[in-house]
Request: fold
Amino acid sequence: MFENKDTSRTSISQLGEFGLIDHLTKNFKIKHETTVKGIGDDAAVIASEKDQQLVVTTDMLVEGVHFDLSYMPLKHLGYKAVVVNLSDVYAMNAKASQITVSIAVSNRFPVEALEELYAGIETAASIYNIDVVGGDTTSSTTGLVISITALGQAKKDNIVYRSGAKANDLLVLTGDVGAAYLGLQVLEREKQVFKVNPKSQPDLDKYTYIIERQLKPEARQGIAALLNELEVQPTSMIDVSDGLSSEIIHICKNSKVGCNLYEDKIPLDPQVIATCEEFELDSTTVALSGGEDYELLFTVSTEDFPKIKGNPHLTVIGHMTQESEGMHLITRANTKIPLVARGWNAMKED
Ligand code: ADP
Ligand code: MG
Reply:
Protein backbone atom coordinates (compact mmCIF):
# COMPACT_ATOMS: atom_id res chain seq x y z
CA MET A 1 0.00 0.00 0.00
CA PHE A 2 3.00 2.30 0.19
CA GLU A 3 3.76 2.47 -3.48
CA ASN A 4 1.98 4.20 -6.26
CA LYS A 5 1.42 2.02 -9.30
CA ASP A 6 4.27 2.58 -11.69
CA THR A 7 4.05 -0.30 -14.09
CA SER A 8 4.49 1.63 -17.32
CA ARG A 9 5.95 5.05 -17.91
CA THR A 10 4.95 7.45 -20.62
CA SER A 11 6.75 10.76 -20.28
CA ILE A 12 4.64 13.92 -20.27
CA SER A 13 6.71 15.35 -23.14
CA GLN A 14 5.50 12.53 -25.41
CA LEU A 15 1.96 13.93 -25.20
CA GLY A 16 2.79 17.64 -25.04
CA GLU A 17 0.77 20.11 -22.95
CA PHE A 18 -2.40 20.09 -25.03
CA GLY A 19 -2.30 16.35 -25.59
CA LEU A 20 -1.91 15.86 -21.87
CA ILE A 21 -4.86 18.12 -21.00
CA ASP A 22 -7.06 16.32 -23.55
CA HIS A 23 -5.92 12.94 -22.30
CA LEU A 24 -6.62 13.72 -18.64
CA THR A 25 -9.93 15.49 -19.09
CA LYS A 26 -11.56 13.45 -21.88
CA ASN A 27 -13.77 11.45 -19.48
CA PHE A 28 -15.28 14.39 -17.63
CA LYS A 29 -19.00 14.69 -18.23
CA ILE A 30 -21.04 17.83 -17.66
CA LYS A 31 -23.92 17.21 -15.24
CA HIS A 32 -25.17 20.69 -14.35
CA GLU A 33 -27.36 22.95 -16.47
CA THR A 34 -25.51 25.89 -14.97
CA THR A 35 -22.33 24.73 -16.74
CA VAL A 36 -22.81 26.54 -20.05
CA LYS A 37 -19.22 25.91 -21.21
CA GLY A 38 -16.73 23.63 -19.47
CA ILE A 39 -13.22 22.69 -20.56
CA GLY A 40 -12.10 23.76 -24.03
CA ASP A 41 -12.35 27.52 -24.36
CA ASP A 42 -10.43 30.42 -22.86
CA ALA A 43 -12.73 30.40 -19.85
CA ALA A 44 -15.64 28.37 -18.55
CA VAL A 45 -19.10 29.94 -18.58
CA ILE A 46 -21.42 29.37 -15.62
CA ALA A 47 -25.05 30.47 -15.50
CA SER A 48 -26.23 31.95 -12.25
CA GLU A 49 -29.42 30.52 -10.82
CA LYS A 50 -32.22 32.90 -9.98
CA ASP A 51 -31.92 34.57 -6.56
CA GLN A 52 -28.70 32.72 -5.80
CA GLN A 53 -25.30 34.01 -4.83
CA LEU A 54 -22.06 32.50 -6.05
CA VAL A 55 -19.72 30.92 -3.48
CA VAL A 56 -16.04 30.54 -4.49
CA THR A 57 -13.17 28.88 -2.62
CA THR A 58 -9.62 27.68 -3.39
CA ASP A 59 -7.26 25.27 -1.67
CA MET A 60 -3.73 24.38 -2.73
CA LEU A 61 -1.92 21.17 -1.81
CA VAL A 62 1.87 21.06 -2.05
CA GLU A 63 3.93 17.86 -2.09
CA GLY A 64 6.08 17.58 1.02
CA VAL A 65 3.94 20.13 2.86
CA HIS A 66 0.39 18.78 2.61
CA PHE A 67 0.96 15.27 1.37
CA ASP A 68 3.61 12.59 1.18
CA LEU A 69 3.42 10.36 -1.88
CA SER A 70 5.22 7.53 -0.09
CA TYR A 71 1.93 6.58 1.55
CA MET A 72 -0.63 8.74 -0.23
CA PRO A 73 -1.76 7.01 -3.43
CA LEU A 74 -2.24 9.58 -6.21
CA LYS A 75 -5.81 8.50 -6.71
CA HIS A 76 -6.58 9.30 -3.09
CA LEU A 77 -4.74 12.59 -3.41
CA GLY A 78 -6.94 13.62 -6.34
CA TYR A 79 -10.03 12.63 -4.39
CA LYS A 80 -8.91 14.47 -1.24
CA ALA A 81 -7.95 17.62 -3.14
CA VAL A 82 -11.54 17.87 -4.41
CA VAL A 83 -13.10 16.99 -1.05
CA VAL A 84 -11.21 19.63 0.96
CA ASN A 85 -12.54 22.31 -1.39
CA LEU A 86 -16.12 21.06 -1.38
CA SER A 87 -16.00 21.03 2.42
CA ASP A 88 -15.47 24.81 2.33
CA VAL A 89 -18.45 25.29 0.02
CA TYR A 90 -20.66 23.15 2.28
CA ALA A 91 -19.44 25.16 5.28
CA MET A 92 -21.19 28.18 3.72
CA ASN A 93 -24.41 26.09 3.61
CA ALA A 94 -24.16 26.18 -0.20
CA LYS A 95 -24.42 23.56 -2.94
CA ALA A 96 -21.19 22.84 -4.83
CA SER A 97 -21.53 22.61 -8.59
CA GLN A 98 -18.21 23.18 -10.40
CA ILE A 99 -14.47 22.97 -9.83
CA THR A 100 -11.34 23.95 -11.72
CA VAL A 101 -8.16 21.92 -11.25
CA SER A 102 -4.67 23.36 -11.68
CA ILE A 103 -1.55 21.27 -11.47
CA ALA A 104 2.18 21.98 -11.52
CA VAL A 105 4.11 18.80 -12.11
CA SER A 106 7.76 17.85 -12.52
CA ASN A 107 8.89 15.47 -15.24
CA ARG A 108 9.59 12.83 -12.59
CA PHE A 109 5.87 12.03 -12.92
CA PRO A 110 4.88 9.86 -15.86
CA VAL A 111 1.52 10.32 -17.60
CA GLU A 112 0.30 7.18 -15.79
CA ALA A 113 0.75 8.93 -12.42
CA LEU A 114 -1.40 11.86 -13.58
CA GLU A 115 -4.00 9.39 -14.84
CA GLU A 116 -4.23 8.06 -11.28
CA LEU A 117 -4.56 11.58 -9.89
CA TYR A 118 -7.33 12.38 -12.37
CA ALA A 119 -9.10 9.08 -11.68
CA GLY A 120 -9.43 10.24 -8.07
CA ILE A 121 -10.64 13.68 -9.16
CA GLU A 122 -13.19 12.04 -11.47
CA THR A 123 -14.46 9.73 -8.73
CA ALA A 124 -14.98 12.66 -6.37
CA ALA A 125 -16.65 14.70 -9.13
CA SER A 126 -19.04 11.86 -9.75
CA ILE A 127 -19.82 11.09 -6.07
CA TYR A 128 -20.30 14.76 -5.17
CA ASN A 129 -22.06 15.56 -8.44
CA ILE A 130 -19.85 18.38 -9.66
CA ASP A 131 -18.51 19.42 -13.05
CA VAL A 132 -14.80 19.88 -13.75
CA VAL A 133 -14.92 23.01 -15.91
CA GLY A 134 -11.29 24.00 -16.40
CA GLY A 135 -7.88 24.43 -14.89
CA ASP A 136 -4.28 24.99 -15.79
CA THR A 137 -1.35 22.67 -16.43
CA THR A 138 2.22 23.74 -15.93
CA SER A 139 5.60 22.26 -15.08
CA SER A 140 7.38 22.44 -11.76
CA THR A 141 11.06 21.91 -11.01
CA THR A 142 10.55 19.39 -8.22
CA GLY A 143 7.30 18.18 -6.74
CA LEU A 144 3.62 18.17 -7.44
CA VAL A 145 1.29 21.05 -6.64
CA ILE A 146 -2.45 20.77 -7.03
CA SER A 147 -4.77 23.72 -6.64
CA ILE A 148 -8.53 23.40 -6.90
CA THR A 149 -11.15 26.12 -7.00
CA ALA A 150 -14.73 25.17 -6.19
CA LEU A 151 -17.87 27.08 -7.13
CA GLY A 152 -21.23 26.75 -5.49
CA GLN A 153 -24.50 28.59 -5.19
CA ALA A 154 -26.94 29.32 -2.40
CA LYS A 155 -29.87 31.59 -1.73
CA LYS A 156 -28.68 34.80 -0.11
CA ASP A 157 -30.60 34.13 3.11
CA ASN A 158 -29.36 30.56 3.43
CA ILE A 159 -25.65 31.38 3.34
CA VAL A 160 -24.07 30.90 6.76
CA TYR A 161 -21.04 32.95 7.79
CA ARG A 162 -18.60 32.50 10.65
CA SER A 163 -19.85 35.73 12.15
CA GLY A 164 -23.44 35.08 13.18
CA ALA A 165 -23.14 33.19 16.49
CA LYS A 166 -24.91 34.73 19.52
CA ALA A 167 -24.37 34.20 23.25
CA ASN A 168 -26.36 31.15 24.45
CA ASP A 169 -26.41 29.54 20.97
CA LEU A 170 -25.59 25.83 21.01
CA LEU A 171 -22.35 24.62 19.45
CA VAL A 172 -22.96 21.59 17.23
CA LEU A 173 -20.54 19.21 15.48
CA THR A 174 -21.21 16.65 12.75
CA GLY A 175 -19.57 13.21 12.95
CA ASP A 176 -16.48 12.75 15.11
CA VAL A 177 -13.00 14.29 15.31
CA GLY A 178 -9.35 13.31 15.80
CA ALA A 179 -9.32 10.30 13.48
CA ALA A 180 -7.52 11.84 10.48
CA TYR A 181 -4.60 13.02 12.62
CA LEU A 182 -4.20 9.58 14.20
CA GLY A 183 -4.42 7.94 10.78
CA LEU A 184 -1.45 10.09 9.77
CA GLN A 185 0.48 9.00 12.89
CA VAL A 186 -0.06 5.33 11.99
CA LEU A 187 0.99 5.93 8.37
CA GLU A 188 4.11 7.86 9.45
CA ARG A 189 5.05 5.06 11.82
CA GLU A 190 4.58 2.38 9.15
CA LYS A 191 6.68 4.46 6.74
CA GLN A 192 9.57 4.38 9.26
CA VAL A 193 9.14 0.62 9.77
CA PHE A 194 9.07 0.14 5.99
CA LYS A 195 12.34 2.12 5.62
CA VAL A 196 14.09 -0.27 8.01
CA ASN A 197 12.44 -3.41 6.68
CA PRO A 198 10.92 -3.06 3.20
CA LYS A 199 9.55 -6.61 3.40
CA SER A 200 7.41 -5.88 6.45
CA GLN A 201 3.71 -6.35 5.86
CA PRO A 202 1.88 -4.01 8.20
CA ASP A 203 -1.33 -5.25 9.79
CA LEU A 204 -3.51 -2.18 9.61
CA ASP A 205 -6.89 -3.82 10.23
CA LYS A 206 -7.48 -2.14 13.55
CA TYR A 207 -6.76 1.26 12.02
CA THR A 208 -9.06 1.09 8.97
CA TYR A 209 -11.34 3.95 10.03
CA ILE A 210 -8.60 6.37 11.06
CA ILE A 211 -6.46 5.64 7.97
CA GLU A 212 -9.45 6.12 5.71
CA ARG A 213 -10.20 9.43 7.41
CA GLN A 214 -6.64 10.54 6.53
CA LEU A 215 -6.32 9.13 3.02
CA LYS A 216 -9.89 9.37 1.79
CA PRO A 217 -11.80 11.99 3.75
CA GLU A 218 -15.37 12.87 2.86
CA ALA A 219 -17.00 16.30 2.89
CA ARG A 220 -20.35 16.81 4.60
CA GLN A 221 -22.42 17.16 1.45
CA GLY A 222 -25.74 16.23 3.07
CA ILE A 223 -25.76 18.61 6.01
CA ALA A 224 -27.26 21.59 4.15
CA ALA A 225 -30.17 19.38 3.06
CA LEU A 226 -30.53 17.86 6.53
CA LEU A 227 -30.66 21.28 8.19
CA ASN A 228 -33.13 22.45 5.59
CA GLU A 229 -35.33 19.42 6.28
CA LEU A 230 -35.12 20.00 10.04
CA GLU A 231 -35.91 23.68 9.41
CA VAL A 232 -32.77 24.74 11.22
CA GLN A 233 -30.84 27.77 9.98
CA PRO A 234 -27.42 27.78 11.70
CA THR A 235 -26.34 31.15 13.03
CA SER A 236 -22.69 30.47 12.09
CA MET A 237 -20.74 27.65 10.47
CA ILE A 238 -17.18 26.54 9.61
CA ASP A 239 -15.57 23.30 8.48
CA VAL A 240 -13.10 21.50 10.72
CA SER A 241 -9.90 21.49 8.68
CA ASP A 242 -7.34 22.73 11.21
CA GLY A 243 -8.60 21.22 14.46
CA LEU A 244 -11.68 21.74 16.55
CA SER A 245 -10.26 24.34 18.95
CA SER A 246 -8.94 26.62 16.24
CA GLU A 247 -12.29 26.44 14.37
CA ILE A 248 -14.22 27.26 17.55
CA ILE A 249 -11.92 30.22 18.13
CA HIS A 250 -12.55 31.41 14.53
CA ILE A 251 -16.31 31.39 15.15
CA CYS A 252 -15.91 33.14 18.52
CA LYS A 253 -13.63 35.86 17.15
CA ASN A 254 -15.72 36.46 14.02
CA SER A 255 -18.97 36.47 15.99
CA LYS A 256 -17.58 38.38 18.99
CA VAL A 257 -18.76 35.76 21.49
CA GLY A 258 -17.14 33.40 23.99
CA CYS A 259 -17.82 29.72 24.47
CA ASN A 260 -17.85 26.74 26.81
CA LEU A 261 -16.86 23.48 25.17
CA TYR A 262 -17.52 20.32 27.19
CA GLU A 263 -14.75 17.72 27.06
CA ASP A 264 -17.11 14.82 27.77
CA LYS A 265 -19.32 15.77 24.80
CA ILE A 266 -16.60 15.66 22.12
CA PRO A 267 -17.48 12.70 19.84
CA LEU A 268 -14.63 10.21 19.43
CA ASP A 269 -14.61 7.00 17.43
CA PRO A 270 -13.57 3.87 19.42
CA GLN A 271 -10.53 3.51 17.10
CA VAL A 272 -9.47 7.02 18.10
CA ILE A 273 -9.66 6.13 21.79
CA ALA A 274 -7.78 2.83 21.31
CA THR A 275 -5.07 4.37 19.11
CA CYS A 276 -4.58 7.28 21.53
CA GLU A 277 -3.93 4.73 24.29
CA GLU A 278 -1.46 2.88 22.08
CA PHE A 279 0.42 6.06 21.11
CA GLU A 280 0.11 7.47 24.64
CA LEU A 281 -1.66 10.56 23.36
CA ASP A 282 -4.39 12.46 25.14
CA SER A 283 -7.57 11.95 23.10
CA THR A 284 -8.91 15.43 23.93
CA THR A 285 -5.69 17.05 22.69
CA VAL A 286 -5.92 15.02 19.48
CA ALA A 287 -9.58 15.96 19.02
CA LEU A 288 -8.90 19.65 19.66
CA SER A 289 -5.74 20.03 17.60
CA GLY A 290 -5.80 17.13 15.15
CA GLY A 291 -7.32 18.66 12.04
CA GLU A 292 -8.28 17.34 8.60
CA ASP A 293 -11.54 15.87 9.86
CA TYR A 294 -13.70 17.89 7.42
CA GLU A 295 -16.67 17.82 9.73
CA LEU A 296 -18.93 20.84 10.02
CA LEU A 297 -19.10 22.92 13.18
CA PHE A 298 -22.04 25.28 13.59
CA THR A 299 -24.13 27.17 16.07
CA VAL A 300 -27.91 27.15 16.43
CA SER A 301 -30.33 29.08 18.57
CA THR A 302 -31.45 27.18 21.72
CA GLU A 303 -35.00 27.25 20.27
CA ASP A 304 -33.79 24.82 17.61
CA PHE A 305 -32.51 22.27 20.14
CA PRO A 306 -35.61 20.01 19.92
CA LYS A 307 -35.10 19.77 16.14
CA ILE A 308 -31.53 18.49 16.34
CA LYS A 309 -31.74 16.55 19.61
CA GLY A 310 -31.00 12.85 19.17
CA ASN A 311 -29.94 13.20 15.53
CA PRO A 312 -27.21 10.57 14.99
CA HIS A 313 -25.19 12.93 12.74
CA LEU A 314 -25.14 15.86 15.16
CA THR A 315 -23.69 16.35 18.65
CA VAL A 316 -24.11 19.39 20.86
CA ILE A 317 -20.62 19.95 22.29
CA GLY A 318 -21.03 23.26 24.05
CA HIS A 319 -22.64 26.68 24.00
CA MET A 320 -21.65 30.23 23.23
CA THR A 321 -21.30 32.87 25.95
CA GLN A 322 -20.73 36.61 26.16
CA GLU A 323 -17.41 37.61 24.62
CA SER A 324 -16.18 38.90 27.99
CA GLU A 325 -16.46 35.38 29.49
CA GLY A 326 -13.76 34.08 27.14
CA MET A 327 -13.34 30.72 25.41
CA HIS A 328 -13.06 27.67 27.64
CA LEU A 329 -12.90 23.92 27.75
CA ILE A 330 -14.87 22.45 30.64
CA THR A 331 -12.98 19.27 31.50
CA ARG A 332 -14.39 15.95 32.73
CA ALA A 333 -13.13 16.95 36.20
CA ASN A 334 -15.26 20.10 35.84
CA THR A 335 -12.33 22.51 35.70
CA LYS A 336 -12.37 25.40 33.25
CA ILE A 337 -9.30 25.85 31.06
CA PRO A 338 -8.77 28.43 28.31
CA LEU A 339 -9.16 27.11 24.77
CA VAL A 340 -6.00 27.56 22.70
CA ALA A 341 -5.52 27.12 18.97
CA ARG A 342 -2.57 24.96 18.18
CA GLY A 343 -3.44 23.28 14.91
CA TRP A 344 -1.91 20.01 13.88
CA ASN A 345 1.31 21.56 12.54
CA ALA A 346 2.07 22.99 15.96
CA MET A 347 1.24 19.66 17.57
CA LYS A 348 3.66 17.86 15.25
CA GLU A 349 6.54 19.94 16.58
CA ASP A 350 5.96 18.87 20.18
P1 ADP B 1 -5.24 28.84 -21.97
O1 ADP B 1 -3.92 28.86 -22.64
O2 ADP B 1 -6.28 29.66 -22.65
O3 ADP B 1 -5.13 29.10 -20.49
P2 ADP B 1 -5.06 26.02 -21.72
O4 ADP B 1 -4.43 25.45 -22.92
O5 ADP B 1 -4.26 26.20 -20.49
O6 ADP B 1 -5.80 27.35 -22.13
O7 ADP B 1 -6.31 25.12 -21.36
C1 ADP B 1 -7.23 24.67 -22.34
C2 ADP B 1 -8.49 24.22 -21.66
O8 ADP B 1 -8.21 23.12 -20.80
C3 ADP B 1 -9.12 25.29 -20.79
O9 ADP B 1 -10.53 25.10 -20.85
C4 ADP B 1 -8.61 24.96 -19.42
O10 ADP B 1 -9.48 25.43 -18.43
C5 ADP B 1 -8.55 23.44 -19.47
N1 ADP B 1 -7.48 22.89 -18.63
C6 ADP B 1 -6.16 23.14 -18.68
N2 ADP B 1 -5.47 22.42 -17.78
C7 ADP B 1 -6.39 21.68 -17.10
C8 ADP B 1 -6.31 20.76 -16.05
N3 ADP B 1 -5.17 20.43 -15.45
N4 ADP B 1 -7.48 20.18 -15.62
C9 ADP B 1 -8.65 20.51 -16.17
N5 ADP B 1 -8.79 21.38 -17.19
C10 ADP B 1 -7.67 21.98 -17.65
MG1 MG C 1 -4.03 27.95 -19.22
Q: What stands out?
A: The pocket of adenosine-5'-diphosphate (ligand 1) is lined by residues 21, 25, 39-42, 101, 103, 132, 134-137 (CB under 6 Å).
